[in-house]
Amino acid sequence: MDRQISPHRNPLRIVLVAFACDPTRGSEPAIGWGWAEALASRGHTVEILTHSADGNLGAIERRMGELGPVGERIRPHVIALPPTPAWTRLLPPPLRDMAAEVGRYDAWQHRALAHARGHGLDEADVVHHVSYGSLQGGSALRRLGPPLVFGPVGGGQIAPHSHRRYLGAAYWQEALRTLVWARLLSRRPACRLTVREAAVVLATNRDTLRLARRLSRTEARLMLADGIQESLIREPAEDQGERAGRPPTVLWVGRLHPRKTPDLALRALAHLRSQVPQARLVVIGDGPLRPALEQLALRLGVSEAVDFRGRLPREEVFAACDDADVFVMTSLRDSSSTQTLEAWARGLPVVHLGHHGISDFSAPGGAVSVPLGDPGDLPQRLAWALGGVLGSRQARQGMARAAVEWARKHTYAAKADAAEQLYRTALAGGGARTARRTGGRRTAPGAPGKAAVSAQPRPAE
Predict the structure, then answer these.
(1) Which of 3, 80, 370, 452 is 20 to 30 A away from residue 96, measured at CA?
(2) Is 203 in the same domain as 315?
């Protein structure tokens, strides 16, 4: 018989592929952990396949202890990251870096598959791949046996050629990334077979959704990759007026990297101060562009109004959201945006560029989307949008309420509820699919295979 779930909710044993996983960090590490905690909170046993990075293992252990019985249902499996393949050293940079990243990740996935088989995880009920969050990376765990839910992933989005002036010298690296990553890697078997054999593919933006549908007839749907913990949502105060002694504040958060185009925020601030002379910009994050950005602030005459705070712990980022009036998102290439969801969760209005995942999942009433349009006047148009938010206390109050309402729809609890529905569908119809691919064997549709086991969870070996 095929795997099935009874009409009432039974606990499952879920293999969560979370290459990046850390409860104390944002972006992809936060996504990996968010899924694990939410699914365990609903009674499921979660077997996390991850690797060690930046002290994440200690953070995971501490959080598991804080969760009590819920933490006992989370079982981390640490797979060491392989060394960089020697052949990549023969390539010129930046192609060398891309090849090294892909080579190490592919090798890690095969290690993870061998580990999973050796530890009885092929007897789990479902595999859910959430990180590495790229369609092109594929998932070697498709070969483990249980039905695969792949995503949410990005990878189909590219930086717009029309706005290459804001990428500067990094434009050619972006063009190479578009050719290699978005075009060529999507043709390799690891990607195509994953999309074809998955029970469902979840894409975090429409660009990736279109790519997934071109690669296979497997069901593909949109789902925001980012999520928020319910405890981090803050109800907006009734009075969103300026606090005594604090100037109108714009917040930018992210890595100071060319594709994030933080210089757009500085240029927008220079225009904004002609409308709101006291406006200031707080920049949280670090990266290779920081010295150039500090010099740009001097040339624009806004250095006194820009506060570069570097990389901060998440708690301090949330505190900065609480102390700001509006958040600005300027990235020219991003699958979606954890930072904007966190801003919405704190009741902070967002001004963002109208493309990629941020546009697909923009908070209705809680955001202003600025079309890419003419690159020449983009900073001015961003400034107008920011000025419109800063200029009306009543508008900010309404946007704050809408922002929080939107964030509640994207908590990890809500995402886990949606995932359970996907698991039910996969388990009800995935037995034959799983049997056909188990161990590389091909059998007739409906023939019994490794998938023909009970959906009841089994203890870890």
Answers:
(1) 80
(2) no
Same domain, 31 and 152: yes
How far apart CA 14 and CA 48 sit, in angstroms, is 8
Q: How far is CA 150 from the centre of its chain?
A: 13
Q: Which residues contact 415 (CB under 8 A, 6 or more apart)?
A: 34, 35, 38, 223, 227
Helices vs strands, H then E, count in the chain: 16, 13
Q: How many CA atoms lie within 13 A of 11 on its CB side?
A: 16
**Eight-state DSSP code of residue 21:** -
From the list 203, 21, 219, the residue with the least C-alpha distance to 112 is: 21
Q: How far apart are CA 172 and CA 31, in angstroms?
A: 30
How far is Cα 35 from Cα 38, in angstroms, rounded to an integer?
A: 5
Q: Which range of residues forms the domain containing residue 34?
A: 13-227+411-440
Among 36-50, 162-176, 280-294, 439-453, whose mean pLDDT is lowest?
A: 439-453
Is pLDDT of 431 > 50?
no
Length of the chain: 461
Type of residue found at 343: A
- Name the residue with tokens 């789990």: 124
